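Sequence, please.
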């Protein structure tokens, strides 16, 4: 049984992917840094149960800002660069959102078994092979 409707998974994947991409490329954070903030903010649990505010009600940029506000007490915003292709970080977020939903395993538990930086590295290698 899934935590929320299949109708929302595509949006949830896009939001989480864009959050990671924005944090890495526009906020100059490491993928594990923003992901740990996501896990520690309390938002990961709410996202994981399909709370619409996070899965469909925010952009990835807004989600990153909300995560940082929960951790630091300040909202963070930097103008996002335009991208024509999705980054490995985007695809890592996209994949982990789907896997978390499909298997109904909390993000924190998943991170203990396969950290986000490992997912990111694997995707990066696959992208490099296809260039």
């Amino acid at each position: 049984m899934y935590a929320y409707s299949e109708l929302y998974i595509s949006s949830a994947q896009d939001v989480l992917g864009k959050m990671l991409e924005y944090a890495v490329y526009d906020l100059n954070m490491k993928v594990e840094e923003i992901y740990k903030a996501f896990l520690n903010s309390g938002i990961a649990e709410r996202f994981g149960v399909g709370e619409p505010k996070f899965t469909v009600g925010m952009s990835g940029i807004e989600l990153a800002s909300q995560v940082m506000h929960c951790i630091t007490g300040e909202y963070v915003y930097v103008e996002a660069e335009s991208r024509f292709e999705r980054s490995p970080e985007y695809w890592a977020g996209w994949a982990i959102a789907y896997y978390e939903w499909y298997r109904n395993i909390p993000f924190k538990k998943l991170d203990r078994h396969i950290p986000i930086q490992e997912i990111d590295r694997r995707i990066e290698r696959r992208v490099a092979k296809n260039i």
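The chain has a mean pLDDT of 93.
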